[in-house]
# Entry
Amino acid sequence: MMKFFRKIRQKLLTENSFGKYLIYAVGEIVLVVVGILIALSINNWSEKQKDLEKEQLILKQLYSEYQNNLAQLDDKVLMRNEGLEASYVLLDQIDHPEIIDEEVIYNSFWKIVRDPTFDPIKNDIVGTENLRLIRNEELVRILSNWSSEVYQVQELELEYKKFRTEIIIPCYNRLGVARNLNNALWKDGYSPPEALDKKSLYKFTIKPTKKSLNFQEILADVELEGIISEVITFNQVTNLQSQTLRARMEDMLKIIEQEIEEN
# Structure
């Protein structure tokens, strides 16, 4: 092809036809420019396809991660709901001390001393160039706000963890119920909700205390009653925040699913 154009140039120069040569030169420049534009267009299309493929991989990874995050959050909400139910059972026992069920009390004591903490999978997409690959603006917005919204839930959970360690457990020790509580927990077998292997049933005995416990006095303890009411407030507020976070994840998963299906 280059030889063909060279021969035409040489012929026009030999014929001393400057006008025709000028037209030819302009045409050749146009052809070169068109060729460059076509090459750039092909290259841009190729890069765009690569970006689309990368975006799909990121979306699929995010979908898997946030499905796991959602399942974990639901587990924590369930644990807090169990804590709420246990708190109301204890308040009912306090209000009606004439009907005492020690097994129910120990079971309820344990459920309010647990401290469910949400620890989602942390993706590194925000703050990196990979974020630009996501074209859906709503999804980008949710991802950008994710860390701060998770922190609001975790902040409440850390406060409860501190409350549990500094207030609830010392109260149990003061009332003398800690040993019996732990014995009741393990003697028939137990698998902690936060355990990595939820199928295993752990069973052993601590044996109950030899000291006599007066449950009428235990249930009449003013501090215990106040602690239980605080537990209700902590769990309710944290669950409200968790429901907002759950809605964010559901929106995110819905958007990701649509983006994956469309491509």
